[in-house]
Amino acid sequence: MGARVLVIGGTGFIGSHVVAACVDRGHDVTVFSRGRRPVTPGAASIVGDRRRPGPATRADLETGWDTVIDTCAHTAVDMDVSQSIPAQRYLLLSTCGIYQAAGLSRIADESVPVNMHSVARGKVQCERRAALLPAQSLVVRLGVVTGPDDPSGRAAYWIDRALRGTGVLVPARPDQPVQLVDVRDVAGFLAAMVDSEHTGVVNVAGSITLFAEFIDLIRAAGHGESEFHWAPEQFVLARGVRPWQEVPLWLPTDHPFRAHLRTGTDRATQMGFVDRPLSATIADLISWYRTHRYRHPHWLTLDREQALLRSIGGS
Ligand SMILES: NC(=O)c1ccc[n+]([C@@H]2O[C@H](COP(=O)([O-])OP(=O)(O)OC[C@H]3O[C@@H](n4cnc5c(N)ncnc54)[C@H](OP(=O)(O)O)[C@@H]3O)[C@@H](O)[C@H]2O)c1
């Protein structure tokens, strides 16, 4: 008999994969969300808003669970409802973005202090409240997650470029680290943690690769239709191109978040976390991209990219 599992936010990008992985392991899964997206087959559903749960929603949530997996707590107030949900275990999704990375070249492990002034400081408050719950808690700090359906478009940007058959601007340095974890490996790990006894904090991030290797993988998988041009990052920065938002995964050399792309995951490995090769994730992203043609509105436009390439003599 599987565990009774409640996945708060189980219809999101990561949550829907977590639900599928828990169902596959034979758990009895219920999703709690506001009902704006479909529920993965095999799971039951409680519809409500965690910030304003009505009496009926509260009654459904208070039936008791072996494990709660909370994928959508962002500020302290989000944890109010968590206190009234009886559970043996509480798994909270947090982010490696909370580490105080200034002056560090990498985040060695979970003992690196957190940054109370970062954009993710709400997650720090959630983590602190999770530690006070009567349930055994495990905080899972995620690195950059991708895979088919990734709404951030971080990897899809480069797939789009690889398949487009044009010149492609690469402002990152070839030795910039890239650390991507496949959403399905995150989900498998969380499903395995449902009935484990691990507590505390664990970083879950992918293997570290270099931007040059990442581009080689993308080019190989895209069958070389596009030509990639490495551009000096200062040149591109001086022309107002925004790293990460407009050109996903690019973080300039002195960017304070660079250390986050070299996050240590030894504890996760000891706990059984296994990540697939990046080439496998890229192959699946390409299949997904070919049918979905996903494009994010913040991406650098083709016209602007080609103009930049002409000015460096690359097109
Ligand atoms: N993606 C990454 O690279 C990354 C990296 C580090 C950490 N994380 C963390 O991973 C977690 C999951 O991210 P995601 O990208 O999968 O999120 P997402 O796609 O935005 O999904 C959010 C989920 O929460 C539900 N939800 C939102 N507000 C709610 C509310 N007030 N009450 C009840 N349900 C609510 C949504 O459904 P409804 O809208 O129907 O309510 C949906 O099921 C987040 O905590 C994020 O900070 C992600």
TrEMBL record:
InterPro entries given in the database record: Epimerase_deHydtase (IPR001509), Lipid_A_modif_metabolic_enz (IPR050177), NAD(P)-bd_dom_sf (IPR036291)
NAD-dependent epimerase/dehydratase domain: residues covered: 5-71
Listed transmembrane segments: none
Pfam families per record: Epimerase
Chain coiled-coil ranges: none
Lineage: superkingdom: Bacteria
Protein name in UniProt: 2'-hydroxyisoflavone reductase
Organism: Actinoplanes regularis
